[in-house]
């Protein structure tokens, strides 16, 4: 089984905090390749998620990612 994670909440949180894609890349030193991975839902390291949480100022994992309900019910 492949676990699919959505980073949609990250982009929603960025918008509510006034953080643009350019801010994320230039001010928070997120590489363009990492941004693309997040945008298309590719896997990223947990340490990367934790750093993003720290950078944008949230301690809520739900502000960064979500596991679709269908998949989470399987666990």
Commentary on this structure:
- This protein has 75 residues and is mainly alpha-helical.
- The chain has one domain (8-74).
- 56% of the residues lie in helices and 0% in strands.
- It is built from 5 helices and no strands.
- The protein has helices at residues 8-17, 21-26, 32-40, 46-56, 69-74.
- The radius of gyration is 12 Å and the shape is globular.
Estimated helix fraction: 55-70%
> Using only CA atoms, what is the Rg?
12 Å
Overall geometric form:
globular
Give the number of helices. Answer: 5
Keywords:
single chain, 75 residues, mainly alpha, 5 helices, 56% helix, 0% strand
Topology:
Blueprint: H1 8-17, H2 21-26, H3 32-40, H4 46-56, H5 69-74
Put the structure in a nutshell.
This protein is mostly helical and 75 residues long. The chain is built from five helices and no strands.
């Amino acid at each position: 089984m492949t676990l699919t994670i959505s980073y949609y909440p990250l982009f929603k949180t960025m918008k509510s905090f006034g953080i643009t894609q350019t801010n994320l890349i230039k001010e928070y030193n997120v590489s363009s390749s990492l941004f693309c991975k997040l945008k298309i839902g590719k896997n990223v390291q947990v340490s990367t998620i934790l750093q993003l949480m720290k950078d944008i100022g949230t301690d809520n994992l739900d502000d960064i990612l979500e596991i679709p309900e269908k998949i989470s019910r399987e666990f």
